[in-house]
Amino acid sequence: MKYIFIKDIAQYEGQEICLKGWVRNTRHSGKLVFIIVRDGTGEIQSVAFRPDLGDDKFEIAKSLGLESSLIIHGIPKKHPKLENTYELQVTDIQPIQIAHDYPISKKEHGPDFLLENRHLWLRSPKQRSIMKVRHTVYHAICDYLNQNSFYRFDSPILTPNACEGTTTLFEVPYFDEGSAYLSQSGQLYLETGIMSLGRVYDFGPVFRAEKSKTRKHLTEFWMMDAEAAFVEHDENLAIQEGLIRFVIRTVLEKNHDDLVILERDIEQLKKADAPFKKMTHREAVEYLRSKGSEIDYNSDLGAQDEAMLTEGSDVPVFIEKWPQAIKAFYMKRDPENEDYVLGADLIAPEGFGEIIGGSQREDDYDLLKYRMEQDKMDLDEYKWYLDLRQYGSVPHSGFGIGLERLVTWMTGTKHIRETIPFPRMIYRIYP
Ligand code: 4AD
Ligand code: MG
Question: What's the pTM value of the predicted model, to 2 decimals?
Answer without folding.
Answer: 0.97
